[in-house]
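Quick start: what a row looks like.
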Amino acid sequence: MSAWCCVVIIVTSISTGCLSPAPMNAEIKETYDRHYWYAQAQETLQKRLQYATGKNPVAKNVILVVGDGMSLTTTTAARILRGQRRGQSGEDTDLVWDTFPAVALAKTYNVDAQTGESSACATALLCGVKARYETLGLDAGGRFNNCASAINSKVTSLIDWAHEAGKSSGIVTTARITHATPAALYAHAPSRYWEDDSRVPPTVRRDCKDIAMQLVENEPGRNINVIMGGGRRHFLPTVTADPEHPTREGRRLDGRNLAEDWAREKKRRHLRAQYIHSKEQII
């Protein structure tokens, strides 16, 4: 990966709270597919660009930092706490991103729920398309737990766009790499819970890959340069002990060790790649 310079850091949030999905029989207007949101985004962008002066700068690199669950009220509380710890009143204290030259807000609601959850909110944030409750990387055509609905509802993400622009890419998360928020960058699933094949209904396992398998086999996952996160159990079969916790086993039912499959696939493509699982291996 090329050296990081001219870096733009964007801090965003996915709001969570008391989950309140709309009634399941609520119908979503047909206009709310991916094309509706793409058109709306372009219209909004053009309105903003009319106020730009001179040449539009182009970032060489972009780092997107997602604080999952970090709502406006959470950041307000953080501001106050930071200030009061310094002996100030708190409300007038700045956090780092308050000093950025540009700050914006993004709506990440679900099309069938006022208070969203991670997968559909991450789809809105990372793919630019509003989605249905507990679906991942799909537009409103995708239905929860409905494999067939995912076939024609898949949307592209920031990772896809970066690869199209010739950029290297990476995902670093403190959660499972197959968790709903980071998975929106590479996976398309009618359920955020399909992290390995044991969670996918047996009747649709041939048609809908689990999230871990998509990361290893599908675009754009198989071409991501750096992947750091937890959730190893979703990549290991049930008969394989965890390398760091021997009393624990993987959860896959297909017998595949996806970590080894990932390494072999990179070797077949003559790519330099290594799978590591400990701090000692990193340093």
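That is the whole record. The radius of gyration is 20 Å. The first strand starts at residue 7 and ends at 14.
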